[in-house]
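We recall that each integer encodes one residue's backbone shape. We quote one record:
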Amino acid sequence: MQLDTGRYIAHLRVTQKALYAYKVDMSLSVLFTVLGFAVMIAVWTAIYAATGSTQIKGLSLPAIYAYFIVIGGLNFIVGTNIDDQMMNSINDGSIGTAMLKPIRYPVQLVLGTIADSFSLFSVPALLFFIAALAIAHAGLGLWQAAAFLAEVVMAFCIINLFGFLVGLAAIYLTNVYGLVSIVFSVISILGGMVAPLTFYPQWAQNILYLSPLPSMFYFPASTFLGTISTAMIWQSIAVGFVWILILLGIAAVGWKKMSIKVALAGG
């Protein structure tokens, strides 16, 4: 067990060191994330100013600021590069060599995205979360913090499972960037990155709350800020857990078929 654990840690460190070699890319990623959510805050400031409202759907402008700052923090750590890793390794044929390593290829992908998200961007994310609490004049109780951490882990699992499923398409498509754009645009719009889901019609909310999309951004952000009930938090965790099982099943079947194709093609 110790040898296996050491093997995984070693792979994670090697991946992390490789990523640190591209400091300019890291800096640009942080910069564009900050700019993107600065634009969202500017847009919502203009909307509140144009309507002359102090609150929309029960949310004040400072609450909107806090919400999008939390979304910005989540965007740093709840991300995936699995689709990109898979597309590159399939296109250059290195997937065959990767599958011969002592660590299973899907685990290599997960370690790569952990190194990318948590290792590189955890500090910017923490700064965003602190800023959001300051703007919202809110505290983070023990139960609230535990629920938020659970939802972040679930969000990370769900978005990486989506990334894995998109990456599987690279065996059939030369380039999956178009598919990536479509999938993650839908996640942005329906997952709460563009607007809190409470702004959507009630019938749309009822449907979305049964999907995995709000579990990636809306529910963790709302739990962090204390704007949803305990019952809704439990519902989000239950629904998210069920979707993780469903997506894992689909991913397992897809990977089995893909690995057979790779083996038959000789890598």
In short: The chain has a mean pLDDT of 83.
